[in-house]
Specification:
Number of strands: 38
Radius of gyration: 37 Å
Organism: Macaca mulatta (Rhesus macaque)
Function: Localized to zymogen granules, where it functions in trypsinogen activation. May indirectly regulate cell motility, cell-cell and cell/extracellular matrix interactions.
CATH architecture of the largest domain: Sandwich
Main location: membrane
InterPro entries: CUB_dom (IPR000859), Sperma_CUB_dom_sf (IPR035914), ZP-C (IPR055355), ZP-C_dom (IPR042235), ZP-N (IPR055356), ZP_chr (IPR048290), ZP_dom (IPR001507)
Number of helices: 5
Subcellular location: Zymogen granule membrane
CATH superfamily of the largest domain: Zona pellucida, ZP-C domain
């Protein structure tokens, strides 16, 4: 009886710890781990405001027994602003548990409105919070939808310099449960100015229900520059040539929606004119302030072909193809030049005099070395000005599966067998059909910087390797094949560099037409139209197997989320329980040892 009295406090402590552990498990599993939907639940959409406590690990599963997908929108998130994404986040999984494929992760650092879509009729999201004692609020809205059905005029792609778009049904009420995305992309060098003429959406301080989200870039993962609702008329400006606009609506309170327009703004400061030459076109930018001296805003400017009109924004832009719009092509002294003229539209035939200044802009691009040199001449009342511009030939090199050169090898590194036949093509990207590509020199090296040692496959148009075969001239393509090899006493990788010449196809005396000629007979060091391309690495298949695939790897990490939450509170309670068991065992053993010692050594009394 004395033993029971001594052990009673410890027994009570143990029972208390067990109760605490049981309550903690029940709280982690039942208070915020919920299945939403189900066979008996008729609702196809739901909105929830989640108030979260510190150190929580909550899981929700959404499911319905019908063949539809789920779209979930976290339109308002208030998490720990100082917390890391590892310790406090929202994770969304495709399926019935957190063991399914991860669709995405959200934390306080994200700068967008998170939207996720399931592949089937089930979706799971998990929210983990850290120990900071602050208010946390997450607004979640989800609904079921059919991926194969669409709302007319709901989103699209806009690629003109200016345009307009509206919400579906505008000015009538917008549809419910709509998610529309408009991608706006204009030419490089421009920014986008977006102006909302009207916005009439459900009013809410945090814009949780119906809202417009504007992203500074080509997708909804770009930086969010605005989330608006209610009745406002804001203006936004992109930092690049792309902008994304999203309209999201819920199941109630539909109003007129919105009407918007956009214009393009040339990003650089142009005092007068600017010329850029590329492989397929000449690009001329003319400042509108410069044209004011001629009482013109650019509408009356034209090329030699008057049907080719400029694009008007805050500048006037001509995009002149090398083989159109009246462009004149001239070949002389190992050089190709392209010329066009910009003038004002012709006056009325009945007019015989003018008091207006006349403008003539002569645009000229000359192909030189591995770049193009642009010249622009401006004549106004016998005053000539000129500007220079630089560009480069646009070439690329790739491996192909066979001598048909139809299917490109996309694998990098390209793993091959020793002595396998490889097919290589160098491509010139230009709109001029009268050019041909000639392979002058192709050499291999074990390093990407083409350092020593090197090995020539082609030199001065001649094959230097017994397995190398150079194909005949074929327009914008230079082609050859060779058998795979590796360098001795060196790395297993092989890189290729090809120097190519670009010639006029009608010139039968050009270097390209001469084919294999030794350099001693014809020096091309001063040849004007030349460029080079590099490709690689090539590696032997046995090197991959030996190294365990040293190429690019796509690695998927399984989500390490246990089925039952086990947080720091559980661990503490468990440790207290173990400690108490040890103490009880120790006291019990000592008690029985003392009892045995007492009975063993007690002296008998003398009577």
């Amino acid at each position: 009886m004395e033993l029971v009295k001594r052990l009673m406090p410890l027994i009570l402590l143990i029972l208390s710890c067990l109760a605490e552990l049981t309550m903690a498990e029940a709280e982690g599993n039942s208070s915020c781990s919920v299945t939403l939907g189900g066979a008996n639940m008729a609702e196809t959409h739901k909105a929830m405001i989640l108030q979260l406590n510190p150190s929580e690990n909550c899981t929700w599963t959404i499911e319905r027994p019908e063949n539809k997908s789920i779209r979930i929108i976290f339109s308002y998130i208030q998490l720990d602003p100082d917390g890391s994404c590892e310790s406090e986040n929202i994770k969304v999984f495709d399926g019935t548990s957190s063991n399914g494929p991860l669709l995405g992760q959200v934390c306080s650092k994200n700068d967008y409105v998170p939207v996720f879509e399931s592949s089937a009729s089930t979706l799971t999201f998990q929210i983990v919070t850290d120990s900071a004692r602050i208010q946390r609020t997450v607004f979640v809205f989800y609904y079921f939808f059919s991926p194969n059905t669409s709302i007319p005029n709901c989103g699209g792609y806009l690629d003109t310099l200016e345009g307009s778009f509206t919400s579906p049904n505008y000015p009538n009420p917008h549809p419910e449960l709509a998610y529309c995305v408009w991608h706006i992309q204009v030419e490089k060098g421009y920014k986008i100015k977006l102006n909302f003429k009207e916005i009439f959406l459900e009013i809410d301080k945090q814009c949780k229900f119906d809202f417009l989200a504007i992203y500074d870039g080509p997708s909804t993962n770009s930086g969010l520059i605005g989330q608006v609702c209610g009745r406002v008329t804001p203006t936004f400006e992109s930092s690049s040539n792309s902008l994304t606009v999203v309209l999201s609506t819920d199941y109630a309170n539909s109003y007129r929606g919105f009407s918007a327009s956009y214009t393009s703004i040339y990003a650089e400061n142009i005092n007068t004119t600017s010329l850029t030459c590329s492989s397929d076109r000449m690009r001329v930018i003319i400042s509108k302030s410069y044209l004011e001296a001629f009482n013109s805003n650019g509408n009356t400017l034209q090329l030699k072909d008057p049907t080719c009109r400029p694009k008007l924004s805050n500048v006037v832009e001509f995009s002149i193809p090398l083989n159109g719009c009246g462009t004149i092509r001239k070949v002389e002294d190992q050089s190709i030049t392209y010329t066009n003229i910009i003038t004002f539209s012709a006056s009325s035939p009945s007019e015989v005099i003018t008091r207006q200044k006349q403008l003539q802009i002569i645009v000229k691009c000359e192909m030189e070395h591995n770049s193009t040199v642009g010249l622009i001449y401006i004549t106004e009342d016998d005053v000539i000005q000129n500007q220079n511009a630089l560009g480069k030939y646009n070439t690329s090199m790739a491996f192909f599966e066979s001598d048909s050169f139809e299917k490109t090898i996309l694998e990098s590194p390209y793993y091959v067998d020793l002595n396998q036949t490889l097919f290589v093509q160098v491509s010139l990207h230009t709109s001029d059909p009268n050019l041909v590509v000639f392979l002058d020199t192709c050499r291999a090296s074990p390093t990407s910087d083409l350092a020593s040692p090197t090995y020539d496959l082609i030199k001065s148009g001649c094959s230097r390797d017994e397995t190398c075969k150079v194909y005949p001239l074929f327009g914008h393509y230079g082609r050859f094949q060779f058998n795979a090899f590796k360098f001795l006493r060196s790395l297993s990788s092989v890189y290729l560099q090809c120097k190519v010449l670009i010639c006029d196809s009608s010139d039968h005396q050009s270097r390209c037409s001469q084919g294999c000629v030794s350099r001693s007979k014809r020096d091309i060091s001063s040849y004007k139209w030349k460029t080079d391309s590099i490709i690689g690495p090539i590696r032997l298949k046995r090197d991959r197997s030996a190294s365990g695939n040293s190429g690019f790897q796509h690695e998927t990490h399984a989500e390490e989320t246990p089925n039952q939450p086990f947080n720091s509170l559980h661990l503490f309670s468990f440790m207290v329980l173990v400690l108490n068991v040890v103490i009880v065992a120790t006291i019990t053993v000592r008690h029985f040892v003392n009892q045995r010692a007492y009975y063993k050594y007690q002296k008998l009394q003398n009577y």
